[in-house]
Each structure stands twice: as structure tokens, then as C-alpha cells.
Amino acid sequence: MALLNFRRKESPANTPTAEVEALLRDYSIEVMPRTAEKVEDFTALLPAETRVYVAHIEGTPIEDMVATAKRLNADGYKVMPHFPARIIKDRATLANWIAMYQGEADVKQALLLAGGVTTPHGDFSDSMQLMETGLFDAAGFERLHVAGHPEGNRDIDATGTAGVDAALKWKNDFQTRTDAKMAIATQFAFDAKPIIAWADSLREAGITLPVHIGIAGPAKLQTLIKFAIACGVGPSLKVLQKRAMDVTKLLLPYEPTDVINELALHKAANPDFNISHVHFFPLGGIKTNANWAIENGGSSAVPANTSV
């Protein structure tokens, strides 16, 4: 596949700052088979070699997941499918999924997570058990990402963060005793201040895994509030609730400009800040999110054949 030629978007009104461009460089984005089907041409939206996570929702056939990964790989993207522990029946099923992804889509990266279901479908209940099988290492996977929760996870800790903190410490130790290349990909949040405080607390606890911070892409306010509640987003939900009370903003789509700007400025002022990348959840649609990234300096480039 020929690589696209890229040019900077000429739009003084939307000229991104150098700090924002740096934070958005090599951003990643998440898709599902049913949302990917709506995109006619990913190469008109995403820069070459963008990391694309393929989210595995309960009930999605593995064949659909692999087909989506195969398409994205053929388009030149780094594909990272989800492996949700609680919906994987047993070791044999996990080995089969890995073989299918590698055989048909040349997958070498994975996001390992517990998954959203309450009761495990089989032998696995958390991502640590998936890592301990050794199957990803045996299959030559080059990178493993794990989940992070800047505002806690009520499925693990009804109060506080002791459970998620202990899990991240275990995963950090796993990296130090293996040759795995790892990072933390987080749930989305809407307020930079708690994100910064959480990231700093990881470093203080000796957790050195780089953080790919989850950010909700542009979407209708009502859509974001619905997803935020369903996903257990914590105190930063107040950012949306406050916006909903402002009638001048109620009908306008939410954009992550403020949180991205604040994180970018903080990273520029603190070079050792452990948030290394942005990971987008395109809750308002893949095209909408990708175009927002282009307009705001994502990878500092825009596809030459794209009208934005």
C-alpha cells in the first residue's frame, strides 16, 4: 500500500499549539467491528501506522473481531485487539484467539483487561491471569497494554483504589521480570486535574509504565453523559454536568479541547510526566473524532486527499 502524502492543515483559526501537537503525536483510537463497518476508508482519516484498538464487546463473534483486525492491518495500521479475561472460557480458547489474530491479521499487540461482565464465563477473571499463561510471550507478541482507571473502578473497589493500585503494581513488576513492552491505557475522564494527580501518584508508587490517557472524542453532551455513567467515570463527570446546566452550551457538541490543552501544557512544563500518549474513545463517531484530531494537530498532519 502506498503511503499517503501529508500536509499541514492551513486554518489560522484552528492552528494547534506546539504543546498540543506534541501530546497528540502518535495518538491511538478505538473501534468496534460494527463501528468500523461504517467507515469506508480509514486511510482518509487516520495517519499511517496509527495504533487502532479493536474493542471486544460481549457477544461479538471472534470471527468479526479478526476480520476487522485483518482489514486494519491491510490498511497499514498497528492493530491492538482487546482480550477481555472474563469472556474467554479457558486456555485453549485464548490460544485459539491468539492464533486467529496472528494467522489472519499479523497481530503482535494486545490490550489485556478483565472485561465488563460481572461473572466470568470460564477460567479467567482478570488480565493478570492472561499474562501468567505465557501464551502471548510464546506467540511473540511485541507489546501488551493493561487497563488503568484515573478515577478508580467500582467493579474492583467499592471505595478507594486499593485493588486497582495493587493490580498495577503487579503488572509493573511483570514488566521488570520479563521482556514485555507495556503501557497503561486508561478509562476516559474529562478533567485534567484528577488525571494529573493520579498519574503523579503512580510515579510516586514506583510504577514506571507509561500512560496512554483515555480521552472521549467529540460527541453530543447527552451521549457522553450516558457513556460516562455506564463506564463508571468518577468526579470528572461534573465537567459534563456543569456544561449541561449552561443553556448556551447544552446543544453544542462536547470537544476535548480544554482537557487536552491542560494536559499538554502540564507535560511541556514537566518533561518527566508519565502520560506519553492520548488514546481516543470515539463516542461521537470515528470520522468525527479523526477529523477533530486532524484539525487539532494529531500527528501534525492531515491526509492530502481529505477535505476537513
From TrEMBL:
Keyword hit for Oxidoreductase: yes
Keywords: Oxidoreductase
UniProt-recorded name of the protein: Methylenetetrahydrofolate reductase
GO molecular function: oxidoreductase activity
Domain of life: Bacteria
